[in-house]
Amino acid sequence: MTRHLTLRPYAPADLAAIYDICLRTADAGKDGTHLYRDPWVLGHRYAGPYVALEPNYAFVLDDGERVVGYILGVPDSIRFAAESEAKWFSLLRPLYPLPGSQDKSPDAGAHRLIHAGCPAPEQPWLSQYPAHLHIDLLPAAQGRGQGRALMEALWGALRSAGVPGVHLGVGAANPRANAFYRHLGFTELEKVEGRFWTLGYDLR
């Protein structure tokens, strides 16, 4: 049975569901549960600081029983980089020691991401596209126009704050997501061959 989906602002009670979705879409959009021993580690990097520091730019899809998708954004990537370092990643690192170079496990890679933090890109396009976002939907919510709906909710919030544009990164292993973003009107800002694209959307 297809459930009706409600798009609403993030609430603190949604945090565990967002972490779970982050993990269940971690393998190039597919379920990454089998890859990680620690089910929280990816959420600590890609979700936690966003809802902690910029909750007004977080929206979720709710099917009446659970959250099945989300979008998380920040209006100013430079400010967010500084605040997430001071108020999030610096506090997490003692709990996630930096692994040795010989450890190539997905968990070790996630630990390294926590130690890297979330630095703002030093690119000339950042002044035009200062915001950035993360969006993830479980399979039950895909193919129903809900990705666009989440994007439009965030775009509205960013426009109200006077933000001129938003960027995102997408891995080369996820061409379906790349096609989806380009269909919405994102354009290529940067490409690292075989690794990822950075795409931008003009909000003006």
Automatic annotation (TrEMBL):
N-acetyltransferase domain location: 5-204
Keyword Ribosomal protein listed: no
Alphabetically ordered keywords of this record: Transferase
Record-annotated membrane-spanning stretches: none
InterPro entries: Acyl_CoA_acyltransferase (IPR016181), Glycosyl_Hydrolase_84 (IPR051822), GNAT_dom (IPR000182)
GO molecular function, one term: acyltransferase activity, transferring groups other than amino-acyl groups
Listed Pfam families: Acetyltransf_1
SUPFAM superfamilies: Acyl-CoA N-acyltransferases (Nat) (SSF55729)
Signal peptide: none
PANTHER family associated with the record: O-GLCNACASE, PROTEIN O-GLCNACASE
Protein name: GNAT family N-acetyltransferase
Source organism of this protein record: Deinococcus irradiatisoli
Phylogenetic placement of the source organism: Bacteria, Thermotogati, Deinococcota, Deinococci, Deinococcales
